[in-house]
Design goal:
Elements lengths: L2 E2 L1 H12 L21 E2 L1 E4 L3 H14 L4 E2 L3 E3 L1 H9 L6 E3 L3 H8 L9 E13 L17 E4 L4 H13 L7 E3 L2 H10 L4 E5 H5 L5 E4 L7 E8 L4 H11 L1 H9 L6
Amino acid sequence: MRLVPPVLLAAALTLAACGGPGGSSGPGAAAEGPAPADTLTVFAAASLGAAFDDLLEAFGADHPDVTIEPATYDGSSTLVTQLIEGARADVLATADQATMATLLDSDLPTGDPVDFATNTLVIAVPAGNPHGVEDLPDLAGRTYAICAPEVPCGAAAGRLFAQRGFEADAVSLEQNVTAVARRVASGEVDAGLVYATDVADRAGELEAVVPAGDPIVNTYPILTLTSDPAARAFADYVLSDAGREILAEHGFGAP
């Protein structure tokens, strides 16, 4: 399977993300201004870190009366567990629908999640692909890291392994995809299973190898957890044309 440079891969996903819904209301509409003195706390999947930093910065510029707390980025399953155990957040964005469903099945009062992005699983290798990894079987005999199975990126890796009949022998199971990407970039492992966006955000450090077969694509939902106007306004901004443009710049596709 051919090696895809991260810049080209991100560009392809950007084209796929164009043309989100528009209109005066709904997911494609610009966010309404929230009431003054609101505070916004966001929990988001680790793979959203760079994109959500940009989204929160742009949102804050448009809504200077909102106090934006530092976002919490981690594995989606970890975030959901923290919320169920009493942590507070206004907005949750997970890296797959199954993890969001775990929260919806809990006793916490929630609204309805809305899908806002997609991401594709790839094999991350160091820049220059020094070990010549061209497809999944090339990982045999190499050191590689994946996410733990309860984490969306780990579940996605499991689907890929099942599709290809590949027996996993990873040297580590990480609690979020950022940790996998970091281990590959640092040279601790030869490769890792991450999302296309993780490679795009580490251009110059990592390259992406797209495994043969049907792509393994995760759909990302966003959910407001409180009735605070800032929460609804930020979720609407993520779903707006401006928000989709920022997500596309980071390599996310449209849902």
